[in-house]
Amino acid sequence: MPQKIAVLAGDGIGPEIVAEAIKVLSFINTDMNLGLVFENALIGGAAYDAFGTPLPQTTLNLCKNADAVLLGAVGGPKWEPLAHAVRPERGLLGIRSELNLFSNLRPAILYPQLVDASTLKPEVVSGLDIMIVRELTGGIYFGQPRGVHVAENGERVGINTKIYSESEIRRIAHSAFKIAQKRHKKLCSVDKANVLEVTELWRSVMTEVGKDYPDVQLSHMYVDNAAMQLVRAPKQFDVIVTSNMFGDILSDIAAMLTGSIGMLPSASLDANAKGMYEPIHGSAPDIAGQGIANPLATILSVAMMLRYTFNQPEAAERIERAVNTALDSKVRTADIYSEGMIKVSTSGMGDAVLNALKG
Ligand code: NAD
């Protein structure tokens, strides 16, 4: 049976970058006889304009029935005045929770051709290739009780709760260990076990699960030290696993080590490696419609999809090598352009990757 990909282009530059990713995926699908089929649906602001909701039932059904979801980006100033419940971003949160996508993978790779884009010294970041695995559906962003209330003394009090059950920790641990097995077999679990009891449990469950993966070297680090180490000596890490909020912050630090937001893909997986794949950047309304957005983060998201959901490492590597070849040929979209390079449009970059694949 063919395997289905739900394609949700979204808003802003979403349709422009997704078109290039589909161009690349269609080629590799035919060339390697992968048997993938695609189906498009609306999400975000585009879905709100058409149906009055950022996540129409038809879109959700398509995603539930698909093996993977490819997403561009959602949001933009046009929809900012809307009530929170119908904001474009709610569409994304809805898919994450409905599909139970609890494991968020954010690689930070520095391409040697773009070493100058980082604000850190080349010797600190050149060759950087780390993966942050962030727990995505639990922790302080969802814990109860939460809210702001007025205490007995009349003062307002704000509260959020960091809560993890053993099973939630166990499943993200398994996800992270399996990813480490596919990489350099080093996993660093980040917590704050010296202060927070919830992360004391996190550390102890990580250690327990680690016994099932004797080939992976597990270490533990406090989150404040991890933030410092990511900037001081990021190449010491292979895979980092951490809770929702710590991962939110650390993955942005890691992304910025590479200096180019248009280059970084991501994946959000369930327990069976079904996933949603998307660039880490947003809908970039400031450049939408101009044909200048960088499609490489979305193209690299497709490579992640082939690796993690469809278990096609060779196809994934072919795409990643083609991106490298395109960069070697000096083509650059505006966001990564520097003197002496050849400036290309969004579709020009997609074509360069496609030609490298064909070559
Ligand atoms: P953004 O990532 O869209 O843009 C930040 C800056 O990076 C902008 O200057 C933009 O032009 C540039 N940029 C981003 N992607 C690029 C690309 N592929 N090529 C070249 N330049 C690129 O973040 P923002 O401006 O804070 O948010 C804009 C909208 O996107 C908001 O509505 C926000 O809510 C939404 N957003 C969506 C997602 C998502 O869909 N997953 C993520 C973040 C933000």
UniProtKB/TrEMBL annotation:
Give a yes or no for keyword Manganese in this entry.
Answer: yes
Any idea which positions bind substrate? 96, 106, 134, 224
Pfam families, per the entry: Iso_dh
Q: Which GO terms describe its molecular function?
A: 3-isopropylmalate dehydrogenase activity; magnesium ion binding; NAD binding
What is the enzyme's main class? oxidoreductase
Which locations, inside or outside the cell, does it occupy? Cytoplasm
Residues flagged as site, Important for catalysis: 141, 192
Q: What is its EC number?
A: 1.1.1.85
Catalysed reaction equations from the record: (2R,3S)-3-isopropylmalate + NAD(+) = 4-methyl-2-oxopentanoate + CO2 + NADH
Which residues are listed for Mg(2+) binding in this entry? 224, 248, 252
Which residue numbers delimit the Isopropylmalate dehydrogenase-like domain? Answer: 4-353
- Positions of NAD(+) binding: 76-89, 282-294
Superkingdom of the source species: Bacteria
What are the GO cellular component annotations? cytosol
Question: What is written in the cofactor note of this entry?
Answer: Binds 1 Mg(2+) or Mn(2+) ion per subunit.
Question: Which purpose does this protein serve, as stated in its record?
Answer: Catalyzes the oxidation of 3-carboxy-2-hydroxy-4-methylpentanoate (3-isopropylmalate) to 3-carboxy-4-methyl-2-oxopentanoate. The product decarboxylates to 4-methyl-2 oxopentanoate.
Q: Which family does it belong to?
A: Belongs to the isocitrate and isopropylmalate dehydrogenases family. LeuB type 1 subfamily.
By what name is this protein known? Answer: 3-isopropylmalate dehydrogenase
Source species taxonomy: Bacteria, Pseudomonadati, Pseudomonadota, Gammaproteobacteria, Methylococcales
- The UniProt gene name for this protein comes to leuB
